[in-house]
Structures are given as C-alpha cells and as structure tokens.
C-alpha cells in the first residue's frame, strides 16, 4: 500500500485545490469590440463534471463521476435542484435515528434534556422531576455533579458556586446524594451493582464486545440503574464498541446538557457526508451561514435545532421573501439579535413597574434592524442610512418570544410596539400600524434592487469564485427581480451561465474546513460510526460548527481560509485520515491498492497538474509539515 502517495492525494484534495495550481495573470488584453468576441473560454466536458461535483456537493464519492457522466451534467444538476425527487440514503437515515433531538420541538427537547435553569427550578420545587426514568437519572446525575463541585470548593475555601449546587435540594436530595456517593473504584462500583456474580465478572474481565453485549441485554430499568451507579469514565469505556443506542445512554448520563449540541453538529456532518441530496445540504449550510445564529447564546442552545430544521431547510430553494420572513419570526433569531426585548419608546410595555428604579424602562434595540439590512438583504453598500436602521428597529418592536427559556414560540405583543409613523428607505409607514409594520419592511427589503444584487453576489462567491464576474451577478440579479426572488431560478441562471463554466474557475477555490473534512471522508468512502471527533476537529481547524459568534457567519471566500496555521492543521488531518487515526471513522485502505497515478486519480478525479503535484509533494515532504504531524514528538514540543 503506497501510504505516502495516498497522503499526497488526500492532501491535494484538502489543501491544493485552486491555489497550488494558480497561473500567473496574463497582461490585460484589449477590450473586444463586439459581444461575440468576448466569448469566455469554457471547461472541457470532463472538467464540467468534476466542477459540478466540487461546487454543488460536499465532494464526490467513488463512482459519482461515472454517474454524472452517465446521466449528463445538465440532467444531474436538474435532479439536485429538485431534492424532494431524490430518495434519501437509507444509511444516512439509520445513522441519524439515534439523534432524537433532531426530530424534537424545542419544548419537547427541554423536557427530555432540561436546561440548567429548569434543573434549578426542579431543585427549588418549582418544577417536578421528569417522569421518564432515563431523563430523571440524567437530572439526578447532573445534580450530584454540582453537589460534588460545591463540596470541593468548600474544602478549598472557595466561594460557593452560584449555580445549581447551592440551591435547595428539596425532593431530589436522596437520589442525588446516592449518585454522588457512587464508588469511584471500578471494581467496587461493579461489585455494588444489582447483578449476579457471573454478570459482574463479565463486566470486570470480559472483552469489550462481551461487556457491551451484556449491558445491551439488560432490561431497560436495570440498565439505567447500572449505568447511573458506575463512575463516568467506566461508563465511557463500557460503551466503546457498543451500539449507538448504548453510547447514547452513556452520553445522556454523563453530560445531558451537551446532548442537544452534539446531535446538531453530528447530524450536520452525517448529512453532508451521506446525503444523496447534496445541493440541498450545501444550500442549507449557505443559508444558515447567511442568517447566522450563535449556538452558545443563552436560550439559543435549544433553539438552533428547530431553526435549521424548520426555518432554513424548507426554504433553501424557495422564495427569498419566505425565507426572510421565517428567519424574522424565528425565536432563535429574535433571541440572538435581541429583538425579543426591543420596545417602542412610548409603548405601554416599555415600563416595568416591578423592576429596580434604574431598569424600569425598556428601550429600542437596533441589532436586528441593522443586520437585516447589512447582512441579510441590502448589503453594507445597499443604500441605507443609520436613520433607516432606527426606523426598521421601530417597525419590529413587539416581534418577540413567549417564555424563551422554556422553548416558547414567536408572537406579536402590541404593548411593546411603537405605533408612530416611520420612514424606511424613503417609504412612509403610517402611524397606528402593528405587526404589519414589520411585514411591510420585509416586503420592501425583499424586492429592493440592492437585495437582488447582494444575494446574487453572495451565491456566486459561494459557488463560482471568490471574485465572480459582474456579468454573472447581473444575470442572477435580473432573474431574482423577475421571479420575485425565486432562489431555485436564480441558481438555474447561475448554473447555466458561461461564467460558471469558465475555464479559470476550475479548481479555483480553497475549501473551507467543513468542506475539506467532509470531502476527504467522502472521497475515501469512509464509514462514520460516530462523528464526535470530527466535530472536535472542526474546532481545531478554525470553523467550530454553529459557533460563529458574529452575525456575519463564516466567510464564503476560499482565500480567507488561507494561512499557515490552517494549512498545517489540514495536513495533519490528511495524515491522520490516511492512517485511520480519526476516531469513529473507518477507511478501507485496500481500495486504493495500485500504482501511484491511479491512487491520485481515484481521489482527485483527474491527474494533478505538474504544478499541483510539486506543491503537494513539497508540502508533505517539507520539514515544517513532516515534523508536525499529529502525535509526533516535534508537534508536542512546538
């Protein structure tokens, strides 16, 4: 097995697409006298097939190139533009099945995986403990963890933890104390379990497979009791090699508060890797990024799942105005940009009689008013002023959330609304309006020429090149205006344009970390049992999933990801993947047995250019990269 050649090929996929093969810019040519003379040099038919796979999917899998050639590039694109007509991959559906939060409403999610605020309420007796035994055990384990920390802080003369640990224990004291008192020594813990001697012996001395099988054979009630009584580290070891359902139960008991976030991130990677509806997944990522939400902001920890599933995903190829309205009314967006607390200056709801004297009056929040114009519609140069920002914010007062910490939904509160006259982009919105004020703004922004151009350029930067031609943006913007913002038609215009298929655009964008990781796994036909370490790798690579704090979202420009630290991390990832060292991901390396040229072709789908091969070879042989591979002593020293 030519392991080094495999590493080089993977590196070419993850690292050198575009920038390694850059050509020197030719001298400016004289402008053609006629339109016919301005014909754009096009890709070859083979290049078009590869280009479509690279741009409209998260990377080709083995066999994809042959398939697209068989049905024809144009037919394949049309299929991807109609994702509902494509049967979903049953492998993906099976892998998503254990991730139950992906199918839950926000309220149901909070009931099964309570937030810290809800656990506080349970400790205070304001909320009952969960009726479900598994959820109850997870809550009790969380309580025990806080109590243990409180005791440790007290022993170290630290001030009390202001969180759960110092609250009244109430009706959960007995269960929590029992969990906290579980033996830390594995042998003592096993001997204390309600199991027969043979079962205890099997847990202590059996193989990994036999121990996992024993746990999975236990009745549900006994399994919960056994898992709850074991130290967390031992639970983790016993779950390794077990079924997804067993691993799931261990995750819930160990860190119930992280289950929702883990499901969301794992689900994103699994869909990107396995989905047959690749363009749908790429667009879901694009539009989430465009209407970015930061996962770690308060109640958004539980709202982002429904936001991506119910707000973004259904509208990625629909009318832009529908997508804009869905995001404007989303609890996740209202919470993230603070509009749920925005109140008109003279609105009845501006006064809070029971609040402290310096907090009695709420005020206008302009965050959403600014971002809906700068980032969501018109663009920073779209022709709006600071006064427009203020007026738009006034229009959206009263667009709020009912009990966000408990998963409540959107509603319009007229007591918070500014009912005065407003002026937005030269248009007067009469006094006395209510929720319609915001709807008028959405209609105005969705139909604005600056929005047509800004959205078209954003799509072109993501799918075509970092610096798309003005002629392409003009075509897309014209379609946007003519079709009332039909995203599917705008995409068709882009994908049928000569500019999309220009020879200069072939392999001309550096992949983002997400695209790089997923495309590498897809190219190797990797089997992902669990994506936990891949999620962690995204943090290392500089693109933690759902955790871009700024409303800008992650950049769509490939060149913005080009820096030495990023390239080193990519090389380390390629090295680990080529050696099957990514936990939870298995690659059958025998599929790449053969001569070196065939290995490169299988992964890159074409022979790399001499310039690309030289750059990749230099990168993998260079002292900086070679000395800093994952796990090497040099990497640890530096």
Labels describing this entry:
3 domains, two-stranded antiparallel ribbon, 6 strands, single chain, 3% strand, disordered C terminus, 638 residues, mainly alpha, 53% helix
Explain what the structure shows.
With 638 residues, this protein is an all-alpha fold. The protein has three domains: 3-17 and 510-637, no CATH class; 101-260, no CATH class; 275-447, no CATH class. Helices cover 53% and strands 3% of the residues. It has helices at residues 3-14, 45-56, 64-71, 73-80, 90-96, 106-112, 116-123, 133-155, 173-180, 186-191, 197-205, 208-217, 220-229, 232-239, 244-254, 259-274, 278-290, 300-312, 320-328, 331-336, 367-376, 386-395, 436-446, 449-463, 470-482, 487-496, 513-523, 532-540, 564-578, 596-604, 610-621, 623-626, 633-637, and strands at residues 399-401, 410-412, 422-424, 427-429, 527-528, 585-586. The strands form three sheets. The protein has a two-stranded antiparallel sheet. It has a two-stranded antiparallel sheet with strand order 3-4. A two-stranded antiparallel sheet has the order 5-6. Strand 3 (422-424) and strand 4 (427-429) form a beta hairpin. Helix 5 (90-96) packs antiparallel against helix 16, helix 21 packs across helix 22 and helix 27 runs parallel beside helix 29 (564-578). It is flat, with a radius of gyration of 28 Å. It starts with a helix and ends with a helix.
What is the fold's blueprint, element by element?
Layout: H1 3-14, H2 45-56, H3 64-71, H4 73-80, H5 90-96, H6 106-112, H7 116-123, H8 133-155, H9 173-180, H10 186-191, H11 197-205, H12 208-217, H13 220-229, H14 232-239, H15 244-254, H16 259-274, H17 278-290, H18 300-312, H19 320-328, H20 331-336, H21 367-376, H22 386-395, E1 399-401, E2 410-412, E3 422-424, E4 427-429, H23 436-446, H24 449-463, H25 470-482, H26 487-496, H27 513-523, E5 527-528, H28 532-540, H29 564-578, E6 585-586, H30 596-604, H31 610-621, H32 623-626, H33 633-637
Antiparallel strand pairs: 1-2, 3-4, 5-6
Helix pairs in contact: 1-29, 1-30, 1-31, 2-3, 5-16, 8-9, 8-13, 8-15, 14-15, 16-27, 19-23, 21-22, 24-25, 25-26, 27-29
């Amino acid at each position: 097995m030519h392991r080094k050649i495999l590493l080089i090929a993977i590196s070419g996929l993850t690292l050198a697409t575009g920038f390694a093969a850059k050509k020197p810019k030719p001298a400016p040519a004289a402008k053609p006298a006629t339109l016919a003379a301005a014909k754009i040099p096009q890709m070859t038919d083979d290049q078009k097939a590869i280009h479509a796979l690279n741009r409209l999917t998260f990377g080709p899998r083995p066999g994809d190139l042959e398939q697209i050639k068989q049905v024809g590039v144009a037919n394949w694109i049309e299929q991807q533009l109609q994702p509902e007509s494509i049967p979903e991959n049953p492998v993906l559906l099976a892998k998503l099945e254990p991730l139950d939060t992906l199918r839950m409403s926000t309220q149901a999610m909070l009931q099964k995986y309570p937030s810290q605020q809800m656990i506080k309420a349970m400790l205070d007796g304001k909320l009952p403990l969960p009726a479900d035994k598994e959820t109850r055990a997870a809550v009790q384990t969380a309580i025990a963890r806080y109590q243990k920390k409180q005791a440790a802080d007290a022993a170290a003369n630290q001030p009390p933890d202001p969180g759960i640990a110092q609250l009244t224990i109430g009706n959960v004291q007995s269960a929590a104390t029992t969990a906290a008192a579980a033996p830390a020594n594995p042998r003592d813990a096993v001997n204390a379990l309600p199991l027969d001697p043979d079962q205890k012996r099997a847990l202590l001395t059996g193989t990994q497979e036999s121990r996992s099988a024993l746990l999975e054979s236990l009745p549900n009630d006994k399994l919960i009791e056994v898992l709850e009584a074991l130290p967390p580290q031992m639970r983790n070891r016993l779950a390794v090699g077990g079924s997804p359902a067993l691993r799931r139960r261990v995750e819930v008991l160990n860190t119930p508060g992280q289950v929702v976030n883990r499901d969301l991130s794992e689900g994103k990677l699994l869909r990107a890797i396995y989905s047959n509806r690749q363009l749908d997944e790429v667009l879901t990522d694009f539009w989430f990024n465009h209407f970015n939400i930061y996962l770690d902001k308060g109640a958004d920890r539980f709202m982002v799942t429904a936001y991506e599933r119910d707000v973004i995903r259904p509208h990625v190829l629909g009318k832009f105005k529908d997508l804009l309205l869905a995001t404007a009314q989303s609890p996740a967006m209202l919470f993230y940009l603070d509009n749920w607390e925005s109140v008109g200056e003279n609105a009845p709801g501006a006064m809070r009689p029971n609040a402290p004297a310096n907090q009695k009056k709420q005020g206008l929040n302009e965050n959403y008013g600014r971002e809906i114009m700068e980032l969501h519609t018109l663009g920073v140069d779209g022709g709006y002023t600071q006064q427009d920002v203020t007026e738009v914010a006034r229009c959206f007062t009263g667009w709020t959330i009912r009990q966000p910490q408990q998963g409540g939904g959107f509603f319009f509160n007229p007591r918070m609304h500014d009912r005065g006259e407003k002026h937005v982009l030269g248009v007067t919105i009469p006094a006395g309006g209510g929720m319609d004020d915001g709807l008028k703004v959405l209609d105005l922004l969705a139909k604005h020429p600056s929005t047509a151009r800004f959205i078209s350029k954003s799509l072109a930067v993501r799918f075509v090149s970092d610096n798309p031609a003005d002629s392409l943006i003009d075509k897309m913007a014209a379609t946007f205006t003519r079709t009332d913002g039909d995203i599917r038609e705008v995409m068709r215009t882009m994908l049928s344009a000569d500019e999309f298929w220009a020879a200069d655009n072939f392999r001309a964008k550096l992949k983002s970390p997400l695209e790089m990781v997923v495309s590498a796994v897809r190219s190797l036909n990797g089997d992902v049992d669990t994506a936990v370490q891949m999620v962690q790798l995204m943090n290392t690579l500089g693109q933690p999933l759902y955790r871009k704090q700024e409303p800008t979202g992650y950049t769509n420009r490939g060149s913005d990801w080009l820096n030495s630290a990023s390239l080193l991390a990519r090389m380390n990832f390629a090295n680990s993947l080529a050696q099957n060292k990514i936990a939870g991901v298995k690659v059958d390396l025998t599929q790449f047995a053969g001569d070196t040229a065939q290995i490169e072709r299988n992964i890159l789908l074409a022979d790399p250019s001499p310039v690309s091969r030289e750059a990749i070879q230099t990168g993998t042989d260079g002292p900086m990269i070679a000395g800093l591979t994952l796990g090497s002593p040099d990497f640890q020293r530096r």
